[in-house]
Amino acid sequence: MVGLKEELLKSIWHAFTALDLDRSGKVLSHNLCTVLNVPHDPVALEEHFRDDDEGPVSNQGYMPYLNKFILEKVQGNFDKVEFNRMCWTLCAKKNLSKTPLLISDEDAFKVWVIFNFLSEDKYPLIIVPEEIEYLLKKITEAMGAGWQQEQFDHYKIALNTSREGLSAWELIELIGSGQFSKGMDRQTVSMAINEVFNELILDVLKQGYMLKKGHKRKNWMERWFVLKPNIISYYVSEDLKDKKGDIILDGNCCVEALPDRDGKKCLFLIKCLDKTFEISASDKKKKQEWIQAIQSTVSLLRAGSPPPHKEARQKRKELRQKLLAEQEELERQMKELQAANENKQKELETVRKQLEAAAARAAEEEKKRLQTQVELQDRFSLELEREKMVRQKMEEQVAQKSSELEQYLQRVRELEEMYKQLQEALEDEKQARQDEETVRKLQARLLEEESAKRAELEKWHLQQQQTIQMTEAEKQELENQRIIKEQALQVAMQQLKQLELERKEALEQYEEVKKKLETAANNTKSWKDKVAHHEGLIRLIEPGSKNPHLITNWGPAAFTEAELEQRQKSWKGKKATSE
User: Are 489 and 457 in contact (CB under 8 A)?
Assistant: First the structure.
């Protein structure tokens, strides 16, 4: 009853706002009681609208009477179309546009009723752009035309910039202007509006001509069938003037397809608790459409669900309310963020002022510090000048003594320096000879390893040649061994290349050591000549050999056999670490 009351209030609101305030309550109440089949109560009406009343538009005016004496007594046994037509009659003349429209007054009435069904539940009543798009799409589909989404998007943008939606009269003018039905004649538009009106307002889920078999005479008669959420009515023709009967639907009803018989095709059966109805459709497509429509209606009755268009309207409203709530929540959060930002700005301004005050104090303190620093610098400069004079006198005395001492020590330093340089030259020569011998042995060992690797490579090559000459039966097994040997061969080749690189590096090191040895020998000879020339009585003491030296292909070795073994161990350790 709450949903019915809301639907009635929208039509009553149009009629109420169109009448003069001094007589709107009484005139409207009489008409409402008549079309809603509610008993008149003239005493209560006159009592409510006394001269001292605060007026029919206030809370103490018309609404309390309307709720108490009319709407609460509505039982639903009234003609909704007649009720809407009465309210339309009271408000259309005042509000309907005088501009010529492409739709008739009857079509405008149907659009007005559809507006009340799709409009928002707040006053003054408006229909939002989403519902306008839904209605225009339904009308366009009913006309069999294509929907122009881009055209409506432009219209929607222009509408959103100026208002939230359209009133009923603006919606009638929009549809009547033909803006979204260009190329369609008045009759096509009228039929489309009527089809949408039947679906949304009269709850007509499907309608059309079919043959029905009689219960008594068993003859077949053509009837106009109208399917609604809980009933199927059939008439003589589509003008709905001569009603022949009803098929009451409930959750226990079912529909079944029948085979063709007795010259009738496309048969199906509707089973109810008390009766069974045999019907013939015009073709198989119509038959299937009617069976599916009736089955869907019965399923809705079993589930207790409203008609699809009402359920869809409720879902759209819930979605809009959800989006509106989310938008309001977002706006609230934005306001909170803005307020927090303003507080932060105030805090930053306070901090900035504190920083400016601190900077001013710091500047004053810096000024005082600089002044003190200048005074200290002046005092320090005077003391520094006095110290410079004293130091200059002392330096003159020290310079005189130092000159005498320097002449005495110069001779000693020259002799010591010459002796140190001679020792260093001898050490360089000894070290160069040792490095030369190490490099020579390293080169010999690398050559031996290279020869061994080459012999091993030749051996693997011969084995590979022998493997190729083996029988076909052994080829598969030997192929795996050949791959392994090839991998080993590749590893050996890499090692050989590495040995060649090391041999080249050893040669380079040998050349460097040789150059160092020559340089050391030249330096030794030069220093020997200098010392002999400078001090005739000085005899150079050279290190002697306590152990027998090794003899190499290039002459005596620079180190003993024990030293050679120590160096080989060190070299092998370094090689193992690098690998």
Answer: yes
Q: What is the pTM of this model?
A: 0.54
Q: Distance between CA 430 and CA 549 in Å, rounded? A: 13
Nearest Cα neighbor of 123 from 5, 274, 10 is: 10
Domain spanning 206-306: CATH 3.40.50.2000 = no
Radius of gyration of the chain (CA): 58
Give the residue from 563, 544, 530 showing the smallest Cα distance to 425. Answer: 530
Pairing of the two strands 267-271 and 551-552:
unpaired
Q: Domain map of the chain by residue range? A: 1-95, 206-306, 308-427
Residue 258 φ/ψ, nearest 5 degrees: -115, 150
Torsion of CA 228, 231, 232, 237, to 10 degrees: -80
Residues 322-359: tens digit of each pLDDT = 888 898 888 889 999 999 899 999 999 999 999 999 99
Q: What is the pLDDT of residues 522-546, one digit of tens each?
A: 877 776 677 666 555 444 445 555 5
First to last CA, the chain: 95
Q: How far apart are CA 321 and CA 326, in angstroms?
A: 8
Q: Which tokens in the block code for residue 50? A: 């006394």
